[in-house]
């Protein structure tokens, strides 16, 4: 092979190699797509926009839901009527995930999960027909049979009425869209359960 022809062949090989390297580099470039948005336990975005009413609602409703679950779990063990047991199971199953959701909101908002002042719980919150959560649990624990079922239903009606009142206050004063939506859900769900429990009692 003559020198000019050999030089041309070598140059062509270099150009081919450079072209292949360029294609590989282009294909390997990282994606410039924006990162996924932060989501809550329900799969929606967590908005940091909130006010004091939203914070108080989440903090107090967590405590309130925990009380309802405590009562419901006792009813699952002690209630005599199958429909009361089924209701108690539904209450516990529904309110557990809502506690998780509100806990995540408070974290996203930079707020404490535990409220510094629980005084609001005596106003339509944990005060059930003149009894605190501790007094209600102690009383229910000493009952059995139909007597337990009746006391549980009456106590849970009062408990639900407190939750509805708290949720209505959130609708009046709150700002966060997710909290307002949960307040509406709590009102709808618990008013339906109040009607169901009253029917069980024959009211």
TrEMBL record:
<dbReference type="InterPro" id="IPR012347">
    <property type="entry name" value="Ferritin-like"/>
</dbReference>
<feature type="compositionally biased region" description="Low complexity">
    <location>
        <begin position="26"/>
        <end position="42"/>
    </location>
</feature>
<dbReference type="InterPro" id="IPR005183">
    <property type="entry name" value="DUF305_CopM-like"/>
</dbReference>
<keyword id="KW-0175">Coiled coil</keyword>
<feature type="domain" description="DUF305">
    <location>
        <begin position="54"/>
        <end position="201"/>
    </location>
</feature>
<keyword id="KW-0732">Signal</keyword>
<feature type="signal peptide">
    <location>
        <begin position="1"/>
        <end position="24"/>
    </location>
</feature>
<protein>
    <submittedName>
        <fullName>DUF305 domain-containing protein</fullName>
    </submittedName>
</protein>
<feature type="coiled-coil region">
    <location>
        <begin position="157"/>
        <end position="200"/>
    </location>
</feature>
<dbReference type="Pfam" id="PF03713">
    <property type="entry name" value="DUF305"/>
</dbReference>
<feature type="region of interest" description="Disordered">
    <location>
        <begin position="26"/>
        <end position="48"/>
    </location>
</feature>
């Amino acid at each position: 092979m003559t020198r000019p022809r050999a030089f041309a062949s070598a140059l062509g090989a270099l150009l081919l190699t450079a072209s292949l390297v360029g294609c590989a580099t282009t294909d390997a470039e990282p994606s410039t797509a924006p990162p996924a948005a932060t989501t809550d336990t329900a799969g929606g975005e967590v908005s940091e926009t909130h006010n004091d009413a939203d914070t108080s609602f989440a903090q107090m409703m967590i405590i309130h839901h925990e009380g309802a679950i405590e009562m419901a779990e006792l009813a699952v063990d002690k209630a005599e009527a199958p429909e009361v047991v089924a209701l108690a199971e539904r209450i516990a199953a529904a309110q557990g995930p809502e506690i998780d959701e509100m806990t995540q909101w408070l974290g996203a908002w930079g707020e404490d999960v535990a409220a510094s002042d629980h005084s609001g719980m005596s106003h339509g919150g944990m005060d059930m027909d003149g009894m605190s959560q501790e007094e209600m649990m102690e009383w229910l624990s000493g009952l059995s049979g139909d007597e337990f079922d009746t006391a549980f239903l009456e106590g849970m009606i009062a408990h639900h009425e407190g939750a509805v009142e708290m949720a209505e206050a959130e609708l009046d004063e709150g700002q966060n869209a997710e909290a307002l939506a949960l307040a509406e859900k709590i009102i709808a769900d618990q008013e339906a359960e109040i009607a169901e429990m009253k029917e069980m009692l024959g009211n």
